[in-house]
């Protein structure tokens, strides 16, 4: 059976930065609270749609793989914040890239979306007759944040990361996959009012992310640890053979617990949560592309990528990286510029929430 391997990688992080201190000017929070509880210092806020970030990340991944968009036969976007319910974000990305020969679909497994997408891409290479797959994790979670939900609003950010997946020529590629879901806990992390139930409630409030933080934390620690250990076992990898753990960047304390469970020394764990917060399905591919650029992925490196998210979903992939860890070409693709700051973009969403609630506009300072 053919094995799927990663031949291209790239990312798109929007330019507007929202720091913890910025947030503290409009919410009852502090840099100290956010940093010590989560490891997050700042996040990016997008001024464009999810599919715009996805297309830019996709162009970088295609260049790294030395491919043209028309050569892609399957385009998967992992996202829980698509531009619209219909069509899929992938359909928009196809047009923005000119990937005209690709079949397109979205995968919604919340923060586990990239790992689910990688598992699907692996299956499509192994048995589905697809040869060049572009898998993108892209999210614009800032649209779901509500300053009145302070334990949630400080956690998330926007961005996109992408990989090109092709049949492996050597002994590299996906070694093992594990996925799971516990739908009984679905309401522990949810965005209501965005689907068919919307027609029943008549609630005019802008949809928002709500979460039971402590419950999510408990399950994340258990499931991330279990699935990372399981996938390393199934891949037949001993601890000393594991080169890098790329965990979903949700919270440094969850990542610490996962690394301890795997008995991974901390220098073998990739962390960039301080710069981006939790970007859901985009977090692992952004981290992977940074890790490669920083020289943290050596040729033939054994990686474990592990995630947890709403659903509740979880999953892990063990993968031996290819021998080539340098891009075949570079792309200059970028988002259109913006003059707005992260705080201004965040404030626009909050203003829209106030308007829909019928509350008076914020004056200045704390809203
Ligand atoms: C959200 C999270 C950081 C909260 O940390 P916690 O230690 O559980 O904090 P608690 O909810 O117990 O709140 C502790 C106190 O901080 C306060 N608080 C909550 N958010 C705050 C904020 N942004 N700033 C300041 N104080 C805050 C609470 O009101 C509470 O105050 P009280 O003790 O006076 O009632 C933590 O639960 C978490 O990371 N959960 C996992 C979330 C996650 O990763 N989700 C995505 C999964 S993919």
Which secondary structure elements does this structure contain, and how are they paired or packed?
Layout: E1 4-12, E2 16-19, H1 20-23, H2 31-38, E3 42-45, H3 50-65, E4 74-78, H4 89-97, E5 103-107, H5 113-127, E6 133-140, H6 150-153, E7 158-167, E8 173-181, E9 189-191, H7 198-201, E10 209-211, H8 213-234, E11 244-247, H9 252-262, H10 273-276, H11 283-293, E12 302-309, E13 313-320, H12 342-357
Parallel strand pairs: 4-5, 4-6, 11-12
Antiparallel strand pairs: 1-7, 2-3, 6-7, 8-13, 9-10, 12-13
Helix pairs in contact: 3-4, 8-9
The protein binds coenzyme A.
Structural features, described:
This protein is of the alpha/beta class. It has a single domain, classed as Peroxisomal Thiolase, Chain A, domain 1 (3-Layer(aba) Sandwich), CATH 3.40.47. 34% of the residues lie in helices and 22% in strands. It is built from 12 helices and 13 strands. The protein has a 5-stranded mixed beta sheet, sandwiched between helices. The protein has a 4-stranded mixed beta sheet with strand order 8-13-12-11, sandwiched between helices. Helix 3 packs across helix 4 (89-97). The radius of gyration is 20 Å and the shape is globular. The protein binds coenzyme A (COA). Coenzyme A is lined by residues 29, 33-34, 37-38, 111, 150-151, 154-155, 211, 213-214, 216-217, 220, 250-251, 278, 308-309.
């Amino acid at each position: 059976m053919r094995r799927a391997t990663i031949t291209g990688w790239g990312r798109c992080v929007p330019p507007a930065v929202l720091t913890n201190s910025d947030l503290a000017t409009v919410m009852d929070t502090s840099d100290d609270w956010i940093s010590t509880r989560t490891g997050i210092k700042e996040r990016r806020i997008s001024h464009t749609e999810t599919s715009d970030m996805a297309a830019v990340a996709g162009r970088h991944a295609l260049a790294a793989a030395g491919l043209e968009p028309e050569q892609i036969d399957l385009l998967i976007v992992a996202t829980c914040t698509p531009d619209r319910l219909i069509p899929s974000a992938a359909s928009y990305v196809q047009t923005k890239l000119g990937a005209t020969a690709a079949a397109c679909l979205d995968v919604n497994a919340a923060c586990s979306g990239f790992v689910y997408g990688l598992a699907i891409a692996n299956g499509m290479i192994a048995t589905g007759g697809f040869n060049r797959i572009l898998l993108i994790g892209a999210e614009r979670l800032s649209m779901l944040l509500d300053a009145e939900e302070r334990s949630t609003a400080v956690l998330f950010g926007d961005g996109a990361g992408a990989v090109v997946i092709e049949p492996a020529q050597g002994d590299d590629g996906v070694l093992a996959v594990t996925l799971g879901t516990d739908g009984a806990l679905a309401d522990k992390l949810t965005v209501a009012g965005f689907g068919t139930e919307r027609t029943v409630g008549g609630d005019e409030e802008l949809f928002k992310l709500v979460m039971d933080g402590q419950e999510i934390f408990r399950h994340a620690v258990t499931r991330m640890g279990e699935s990372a250990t399981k996938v390393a076992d199934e891949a037949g990898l001993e601890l000393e053979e594991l080169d890098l753990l790329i965990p979903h960047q949700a919270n440094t304390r969850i990542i610490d617990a996962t690394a301890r469970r795997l008995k991974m020394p901390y220098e073998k764990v990739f962390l960039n949560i301080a710069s981006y917060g939790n970007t859901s399905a985009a977090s692992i591919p952004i981290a992977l592309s940074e890790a490669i650029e920083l020289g943290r992925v050596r040729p033939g490196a054994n990686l474990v990528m592990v995630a947890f998210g709403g659903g509740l979903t979880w999953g892990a992939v063990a993968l031996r990286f290819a021998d080539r860890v340098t891009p075949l070409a570079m792309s200059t693709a970028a988002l259109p510029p913006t003059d707005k700051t992260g705080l201004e973009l965040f404030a626009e969403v909050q203003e829209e929430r106030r308007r829909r609630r019928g509350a008076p506009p914020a004056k200045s300072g704390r809203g």
